[in-house]
Each structure stands twice: as C-alpha cells, then as structure tokens.
Amino acid sequence: MTDTAFDKEVAEPFWPRVRAALASLRPVSASRQLSYDQPAIARTIGLRPKLGERIDEELASGWAAAAHRHVSLSLLVIEVDAMNDYFIAYGKPAADDCIASVMQAITENLPRATDTCLRWGPSSLVVVLPDLPVLMARASAAKMHEAVRRLGLSNKESHAGAVTVSMGLAVGNPRGSYDKKFFQTAVDALKKAQRKGLGRVETIDLRPAQDRKRKKAA
C-alpha cells in the first residue's frame, strides 16, 4: 500500500518519522553521499583552499591506523586524461559534468563503504585505501578504470576518442608519523602511467625498500 492510500493529514506526520527512523539504521553508502548535487560539488570542491588539508588529514589518519595495526596502506592518484583539451573543446560546464561523472563512477566502485574519493585540483582524484592488500588495490583500480570506460563519455581531443583515466598506485607499510613523500610516490606512479599512454595504471611498491631499511636500522 502506498502513502497516497492514507489521508494526507495523517500520513504526512507519520511517514517522515518512519523514514527518518529507518535512515538512522542504514549506513549511507559512499555513492549516495556523492549523489546529491554532484555537478555543484565538482565545480566547487577543487577550488576550496582547505582541500589539500582534507587529503592530508585522510592520509595521515589512514597512515596512523595502518601503522598501529601493522598493515599496508594503498593510495591511488587518478587523473582524467587530456582534460585540458576537453575543457577547450567542450567548455567549462561540460568539463565539470565530465569530472562529476568520473568521480561518481569511481566512488560507486570503491571497495568499501568507508573509503573516500577526494577531488584534487581541476582534473585529479585521490583515493586512500588503508589495510587493503596490494592485489586487491590493483583489482579495485582496474574496476574503477572499467567503470569510467563504461560511462562512454566522448572526447574528440583524445587519441582514445573517449574519456579515460590514468592511475598511480603507491603501496607501503607505514611506521611512525605520516611521511608526506608517500603521496609524491603515488604522483610519480601516475606520471609513469601517463608516459606510457592513455588509461594506464602503474604501481610503486615501497614495502621491499622499507623492509630493507628497517632491517639495517635494527
């Protein structure tokens, strides 16, 4: 039976309370968190002066949790390929909508509801993946890449003819306080992917070097 079957004066006070109670029992998924006014989010979040602080906070939190539990930390830095050319060819509103769609697709394919996709600059995204084995992190990156491909967004300025993303994945075993070089490692992996072409994923695994350094220090 639908709400319309009830007298309006009775139904309106009752059903909002029921929905509110049910909502309080259900965790809000990452995709639902992102779905509200998505184009507006895409237009403004890259301009917020404290966005870099938010990424640092997310990374520092993930780093501390991983260090405490002695587990790995994975970080994805993602960039939409040929976005400057897309902006020139299609205009700012279309570019905003493109980034919003890509961000939505990636968010909907995060491995866990607690994971977060953050906007970094005009055409880049950051995903922090604490306590996720490297094989699962790579599989998640591949899934996100495929989700963007399935959007089928055209880009006549790209050799691919469609919107694609390049990804850099950094993996480490955090110890001690947060090392900001970890973020740069993911950026370096992204640059390596971009040098190889469009829609590539490259990984830099810091764990072997970290383990050797710790053994020498022991």
TrEMBL record:
One Pfam family linked to the record:
GGDEF
- SUPFAM superfamilies per the UniProt record, alphabetical: Nucleotide cyclase
Q: Keywords, A to Z?
A: Nucleotidyltransferase, Transferase
| Residue span, GGDEF domain | 71-206
Q: SMART domains in the record, alphabetically?
A: GGDEF (SM00267)
Q: Which InterPro entries does this chain map to?
A: GGDEF_dom, Nucleotide_cyclase, Rev_trsase/Diguanyl_cyclase
This enzyme's EC code(s): 2.7.7.65
Q: Which GO terms describe its molecular function?
A: diguanylate cyclase activity
Q: What is this protein called?
A: Diguanylate cyclase
